[in-house]
Design brief:
By secondary structure, this protein is α+β, with helices and mostly antiparallel strands. The protein is built from 12 helices and 25 strands.
Length: 464
């Protein structure tokens, strides 16, 4: 245990000795005073900018807990409901002196009241400027009445390296502000499933419930990421924590301050990782990159000459080995930015430039809640377009009408429809729009429905 701690301190002294060079050399300490260097000055400067976020959410619950059991619900019908208040705790990071705070979307999602507590015990009611479930980031604002607050500056998360020492600051389990130390264990983790734009910094710095939304900072006191998730079988830290990189957090912040919601850039492709077998068939020496399965007509990728079967290896020199990594690299840019891709066109490597854009919303969403008497009554649906498919993380080639919400206690909920389902056919007719779907539902007394759920074809027959 002592040996591991000493090794960490040795690494720390090397990092604190960095010069202003872009890539400074790393050196071991030359004296005992260098070994005894401390995190205290960095923590003292950063800690006031990390806050606690308390939320209060009103939820509906059955009057009788036995009605949670499906057997009792079937026997005695729908239960009476009562309101119940849930309270939760998370963390946040002050990124602007006038009271703008970054945190996780899951910390504030559905909250009716949000209170931010500073490290000096002052408390403020907060309003949500932006909450984006796709990135699991939210931007809050508190009224400081002109008082300037301490802030954390952004690091360039693309410069963070595996082995760098980092500090995690937050309020785990509500015990109070806590600082833990670790290293960057891995970069570009894309299979964590904590957000749609999966691309995480992994660290062994202890992160626990309540740390969500807190700061992962470099040893020079800059924000490397927003602590978001842990891998755990017990609910506590086992040294596998994940943070959203600061470069994506900064894009979401810019969107919040600019108004109009998060507008993430789009390239217009869908693909899969290049496996060893695919690499061999394409003459690629090392299996990496994204093999394009589809390219949306008229998209930025199509205009740049990319076609199905091409491979994207990197964006602006940053490797892309799966769709999550490619989506992340594109999302850190603004619509209109030009990026350089290293690609494999057919069987020939090349560098091309692509001007990014917003995904088109054609056809219009036409979002409606289905009424009447049919199996989809109570479902909220909308037309699919590249914009909707991107938001819902659906394939660009998806066709039909997407279900985005299902109401409990309605036929759509009773028949098991789920958000993310795509209604593709009714009574043998292909569905191309919300208007057509509603017309076919209302014109029938019996329904044969075909639904796409994550690529799986499901059928349902209902007699009126």
């Amino acid at each position: 245990m002592h040996l591991r701690l000493l090794s960490s301190i040795v690494l720390l002294s090397a990092l604190l000795a960095r010069t202003a060079l872009a890539d400074p050399p790393r050196a071991v300490p030359a004296s005992m005073p260098q070994v005894q260097l401390t995190f205290a000055p960095v923590v003292k400067r950063i800690a006031p900018a990390v806050v606690n976020v308390y939320t209060r959410t009103v939820v509906q619950a059955p009057n009788n807990p036995f009605f949670n059991d499906p057997f009792f619900s079937r026997m005695f019908g729908a239960p009476g409901m009562r309101q119940r208040v849930q309270q939760s705790l998370g963390s946040g990071v002050i990124v602007r002196a006038d009271g703008v705070i970054l945190t996780n979307n899951h910390v504030v999602q559905g909250a009716t009241d949000i209170v931010v507590a500073l490290s000096d015990k002052r408390e403020f009611k907060a309003k949500v400027l932006l909450a984006d479930p796709r990135t699991d980031l939210a931007v809050l604002k508190i009224d400081t009445r002109g008082v300037k607050l301490d802030t954390v500056a952004f690091a360039d998360s693309d410069r963070v390296q595996v082995g760098d020492l980092v500090l995690a600051i937050g309020d785990p389990f509500g015990v109070g502000q806590t600082v833990t130390m670790g290293i960057v264990s891995a970069l570009a983790r894309t299979q964590v499933s904590a957000s749609d734009y999966q691309f995480f910094i992994q660290t062994d710095a202890a992160i626990n419930p309540g740390n969500s939304g807190g700061a992962l900072v470099t040893t020079d006191g800059k924000l490397a990421g927003i602590n978001t998730a842990i891998f755990s079988r017990s609910g506590g830290s086992i040294g596998i924590g994940f943070a959203i990189p600061s470069n994506l957090a900064r894009r979401v912040l810019d969107s919040a301050l600019g108004g109009g919601g998060v507008k993430l850039a789009w390239i217009g492709v869908d693909g899969q990782p290049v496996t060893a077998a695919i690499a061999q068939s394409l003459g690629i020496s090392v299996p990496n990159g994204v093999l394009l399965k589809s390219v949306y007509p008229g998209s930025p990728a199509a205009r740049a000459g990319l076609k199905t079967g091409d491979v994207i290896f990197s964006v602006d020199g940053q490797p892309t080995n799966d769709m999550q990594a490619l989506n992340y690299r594109i999302a850190t840019h603004k619509p209109g930015d030009v990026v350089k891709l290293h690609v494999h066109l057919g069987r020939k490597p090349d560098d091309i430039k692509v001007a990014l854009a917003l995904p088109p919303e054609t056809p219009a969403r036409d979002q409606r809640t289905i009424g009447g008497r049919n199996p989809l009554t109570g479902a909220k649906v909308l037309n699919l377009s590249p914009a909707v498919a991107t938001e819902l993380q659906m394939p660009l080639t998806a066709r039909g009408v997407a279900i985005v919400a299902v109401s409990a206690g309605t036929p759509s909920g009773g028949y098991g429809f789920q958000p993310g389902d795509i209604v593709t056919a009714v009574n043998g007719q292909r569905i191309g729009s919300v208007a057509q779907l509603i017309q076919l539902l209302n014109a029938a007394n019996a329904w044969d429905l075909v639904v796409d759920r994550g690529g799986q074809r499901l059928s349902l027959s209902v007699q009126g």
